[in-house]
Amino acid sequence: MTSKPGLLLPCAVQYGQGRGRLHADDTVDPGDFACDRERIIHSAAFRRLEYKTQVFVNHEGDLFRTRLTHTIEVAQTARSMARALGLNEDLAEAIALAHDLGHTPFGHAGQEALNGCMGDYGGFEHNRQSLRVVDELEERFAEFRGLNLTFETREGILKHCSPAEARELGELGRRFLDSTQPSLEAQLANLADEIAYNAHDIDDGLRSALVDEEQLSEVPLFAETWSVVRARHPDLLRRRTIHVVVREFIEAQVADLCTESAARIAAAAPADVDEVRARHGPLLGFSEAMQVHHREVKQFLRENLYRHYRVHRMAHKARKVVSELFTAFMEDTRLLPGEIASQVSALEASEGEAGRARAVADYIAGMTDRYAFAEYTRLFTPDALT
Ligand code: MG
User: Which residues contact residue 207 at a Cβ distance below 8 angstroms, ignoring those fewer than 6 apart?
Assistant: First the structure.
């Protein structure tokens, strides 16, 4: 399934026809999504993804996915599916590159801990934080805060949000109140995320030996792919077999998603992106059979990898680090580095205690795994250097 870039479906987001950026900016076209991609790649939050956990904490091994390599895999998958479907590749890629910018250190354990700490102050959600990073926290321009991305990229970043937040976000939050949809490129980036993490978590799980192919034989999609590859290449070493199986596992999902989605787009024939947005359910998706496979894979990973005692031990430490840092900084903001302390005071001046908490959460969420461990040591180990 190939098509040349630029041959867009009428219901794709068209180049040059965006809804505009957050702040007026004459230097850039409102529908220039490649510009969004550049701004994201040059951001500090993007670089920090290199040292943030996907499943395995960064120092556990050099071969496992980090938040950065996960993001690049999502972007690659989103881009190639966008091309196959006749959707806007630059936009799908920009959304994918930004989708995890707001992630805390230590993956989901870090996010849960920070959400717990922020319970009285509006909570913490990494997806909402990704939007906050691109809208407010990045400091790259003299004229405005944030990266000033297009409406379409920001729409794709915000995958879920509470009704209260949706009201605060105005036009961007509208669809959460109306139960309508984002662009097809946003739907695609979200599905590319699922394909990527299901496949690479199996890959990393196998290579870390936390799971093995024996256990994975209870996942039909994996078992089928494994036996087909084994029958074709009976003498292939295990390492290479894993690579071939994981690649074919991804290809099966990509092919299914593209075939099913192309059929659904053809049947619904939306005239433009506004007709896509007005719908009450997503147009893109897997076939029913593949959805069943997906649920099986997720359930397997939840039970066997994410709850593995070694992953769980690291998550336990991560929660401790995040919540103790939060409590210490909330109780005494003089412990914070100068520039961070002034950001905390500024938000506290305008929003009171909730503002202080939000600024502390911004600081912690921005940390890499190793920076968070280092801060913890500096703060709580009596003879550590400060
Ligand atoms: Mg992701």
Answer: 63, 64, 242
**Paired tokens of 266:** 């053809």
- End-to-end CA gap in the chain: 56
Task: Print the domain residue range for 254.
Answer: 33-309
Rounded-to-integer distance, Cα 107 and Cα 311, Å: 11
Residues 80 and 157 in one domain: yes
CA of 107 to the centre of ligand 1 (A): 10
Same domain assignment for residues 218 and 98: yes
Span from the CA of 137 to the centroid of ligand 1 (angstroms): 20
SS3 call for 23 = coil
Tell me how far apart the alpha carbons of residues 306 and 213 are, in angstroms, rounded to a whole number. 17
CA–CA distance, 300 with 210 (Å, rounded to integer): 12
Distance CA 126, CA 326 (A): 16
The structure tokens listed for 173 are 């939050």
Q: How far is the CA of 184 from the centre of ligand 1 (A)?
A: 18
Distance 383 CA to ligand 1 centre (A): 38
Q: What per-residue confidence (pLDDT) applies to 3? A: 44
Q: Is the same domain home to 77 and 209?
A: yes
Is residue 385 included in any domain, yes or no?
no
Tokens of 188: 């695609």
Torsion of CA 177, 181, 185, 187, to 10 degrees: 100
**Residues 93 and 176 both lie in one domain:** yes
Question: pLDDT tens digits, residue range 241-293?
Answer: 999 999 999 999 999 999 999 999 999 999 999 999 999 999 999 999 999 99
Domain count, the chain: 2
- Residues pairing with 53 in the sheet: 66
